[in-house]
Amino acid sequence: TMNMYLFVYDLMQFCGHSWIFTNMIIRFMTFGKESLADTFHSIGLVMRLCQLLSVLEILHILIGIDKSRLLPRFLQITERIIVLFVVINSQEEVQGKYIVCVLFFLWNLLDVVRYTYNMLARMGIYYLPLTWLNFSLCIPLYPLSVLAKGFAICVSLPYFESFGTYSIKLPFPFTFSIYFPYVLKMYLLVLFAGMCFIIRNLFSERTAHLGTGNIKNKRS
Q1: Which residues constitute the domain of residue 28?
Q2: CB 112 within 8 A of CB 14
Q3: What is the pLDDT of residues 114-145, one digit of tens each?
Q4: Closest C-alpha to 155, from 87, 82, 81, 79
Q5: Which positions make up the signal peptide (predicted)?
């Protein structure tokens, strides 16, 4: 029953990310560079739904139906949630930047491959090219996505400074305030520190799944 539930979950995510990925490609082929500035308004709703749904993956690990490591997956999901909902969604001026299109392209390319692999794995089907792609593609693309996240945060800083979004100044007698651009700058350090940890985990997963013994077993 749990395996069927996970299959349906992966199928829903695959459909969502495939729709986004296909929509982005068709729009670019049809409208060219003009489509890049309109990416968020065209696919932002589905993107937000897919990312909210991905929070369930943390629950899957916590209750033991998914054997993935908790901390790397938690970091990857929270990175996207923070950048998408806190940085991009809250600043309309950032939504039209080309970096949003680049970020969405990297996320969806990774997720289309990952959820395709997961769906087949739930049924005990392993194709070596797909397995290799799933555990190899993320190694160069994940650091690129982190760079894109960092760039999106840097682009958003002037708008957070101008509009004071999420900055809080408590009234008297409290002498405490939160200047949100400083919070984002500190988060940049966390983002790149977490990248080093996650990349090491990606390499260990690749070794575990693409080792000679595992390949032979999956072929048989």
Answers
A1: 1-218
A2: yes
A3: 999 999 999 999 999 999 999 999 999 999 99
A4: 87
A5: none
